[in-house]
Amino acid sequence: MPSGDAFDRLGATRRRLALGTAVAAVATTGSLWFSLGLGLTPCTLCWYQRILMYPLVVVLGVAALDRRPDVYRTALPLALPGLGIAAYHSVLQATTTQCTLGGPCAAVQWRAPVFGLSIPNLSLVAFTLVTVLLAATWVSER
Predict the structure, then answer these.
(1) What keywords were assigned to this record (predicted)?
(2) What is the CATH number of the domain that holds 85?
């Protein structure tokens, strides 16, 4: 049986992983809603972000259920490139109207009614939250 301090740390880790799972699940559901519900066509950069976000739901979910704090070794290699691509995509939308990646990467197809965030901005928020939660898990386990 773990000591009190180790037990508290394990509980905090599990909460962070569960929250990361929820963020990744909402982002995944949102991306499916944009394409299937609203009929928006994902651009190349959107596909890359999806490829990196979708597995995080499973990886973080299993880690949260199985209490695996070392999941950052698997999840950070998905979250960090996703963060970079989402940041690049957001900058691209803010600074240009053309994209050379074969798609409407710079076109703003939808904006959130409340904060005016575009789809890549929402992806950036999700990847940032997941990355921060994973970094906190990594730091707490060291």
Answers:
(1) Chaperone, Disulfide bond, Electron transport, Membrane, Oxidoreductase, Redox-active center, Transmembrane, Transmembrane helix, Transport
(2) 1.20.1550.10
Q: What are the beta bridge partners of residue 58?
A: none
Phi, psi torsion values for 111, nearest 5 degrees:
-130, 140
d(CA 31, CA 21): 15
3-50 per-position pLDDT tens digit: 445 545 568 889 999 999 999 999 999 999 999 999 888 888 999 999
Backbone angles phi, psi at 67, to 5 degrees: 55, 60
| Domain count within the chain | 1
Is residue 111 classed as helix, strand or coil in its secondary structure? strand
Q: Is 22 exposed, middle or buried (0-12, 13-18, 19+ CB in 10 A)?
A: middle
Q: Which token pair is 65? A: 């259920």
> Is 106:99 a contact under the CB 8 Å cutoff?
yes
pTM score of the predicted model:
0.86
Per-residue pLDDT tens over the stretch 61-115: 999 998 777 888 899 999 999 999 999 999 988 887 776 655 667 777 777 778 8
